[in-house]
């Protein structure tokens, strides 16, 4: 979209597709149009699902459970809902986990241990060569100095001597492990600061758990799309009161017929 010169590239990003980001330009457009067009507020409420027009359907959702996995595909789900309840599915909200598998985490940990042993050997050799140090150097924190040296060495290192896909795989696993460890350190700093300020850290752990997942929306997916456990399917459900006005005239006619028969009997008497 950027190569074509379009200004809608933000619509194809994952945060926007997951509903976590709202375009401020869209809000500005609706605001200044509402001063000129009186119906813009009512249309916006209809688009957001706050209001419904008489006889129209409304937006709802259903969650895929283990009992619904026999449907398998989106096409069969569409056919089942349309034939049974009249609901029309329009999209799927899916959440996937970004956690590493067991084998990948073991490989990453082994690579990390190999680097730690190498760093410890280099630091031991460095201490042997520089035993006579000044008092100012001894007052520094060795742990912080060690971490800074490790991060500088990791940034400058091009990677282990592996060829092909193995080197790329180990590099990607190492980056994932570094990002996860850095996130854990930041989380601990924030939690300690919250405890120091007397704030509760109950909901903070739940917020960190959501950061390890990726949520996105599939709008009108292909018929062969597999439905998965805990998928949220958006539905357009018909108005349950839409069929009541059709039955009211027949009821009124029957009442009129009964009253007409009673009046005829009274005139005959």
TrEMBL record:
Stretches for region Disordered: 111-171, 247-269
Keyword Transmembrane among record annotations: yes
Polar residues bias spans: 252-261
Compositionally biased residues, Basic residues: 144-164
Main location: membrane
Subcellular compartments: Membrane
Organism field: Macaca mulatta (Rhesus macaque)
Keyword entries, A-Z: Ion channel, Ion transport, Membrane, Potassium, Potassium channel, Potassium transport, Transmembrane, Transmembrane helix, Transport
One term of GO molecular function: potassium channel activity
Membrane topology reported for the UniProt record: Multi-pass membrane protein
InterPro entries: K_chnl_Slo-like (IPR047871)
GO terms under cellular component: membrane
Encoding gene per record: KCNT2
Protein name: Potassium channel subfamily T member 2
Keyword Ribosomal protein applies: no
């Amino acid at each position: 979209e950027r190569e074509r010169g379009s200004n809608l590239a933000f619509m194809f990003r994952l945060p926007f597709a997951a509903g976590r980001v709202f375009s401020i330009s869209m809000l500005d457009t609706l605001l200044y149009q509402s001063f000129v067009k009186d119906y813009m507020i009512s249309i916006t409420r209809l688009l957001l699902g706050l209001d419904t027009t008489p006889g129209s359907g409304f937006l709802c959702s259903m969650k895929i459970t283990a009992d619904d996995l026999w449907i398998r595909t989106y096409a069969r789900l569409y056919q089942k809902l349309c034939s049974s309840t009249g609901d029309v599915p329009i999209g799927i909200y899916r959440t996937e986990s970004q956690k590493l598998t067991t084998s990948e985490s073991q490989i990453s940990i082994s690579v990390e241990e190999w680097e730690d042993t190498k760093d410890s050997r280099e630091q031991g050799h460095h201490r042997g060569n520089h035993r006579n140090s000044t008092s100012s150097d001894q007052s520094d924190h060795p742990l912080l100095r060690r971490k800074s040296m490790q991060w500088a060495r990791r940034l400058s290192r091009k990677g282990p001597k592996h060829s092909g896909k193995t080197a790329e795989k180990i590099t990607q696993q190492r980056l994932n492990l570094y990002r996860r460890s850095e996130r854990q350190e930041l989380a601990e700093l924030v939690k300690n600061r919250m405890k120091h300020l007397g704030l509760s850290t109950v909901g903070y752990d739940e917020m960190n758990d959501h950061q390890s997942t990726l949520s996105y929306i599939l709008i009108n997916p292909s018929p062969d799309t597999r439905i998965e456990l805990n998928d949220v399917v958006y539905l357009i459900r018909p108005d349950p009161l839409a069929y009541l006005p059709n039955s009211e005239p027949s009821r009124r006619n029957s009442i009129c017929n009964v009253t007409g028969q009673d009046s005829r009997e009274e005139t005959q008497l």
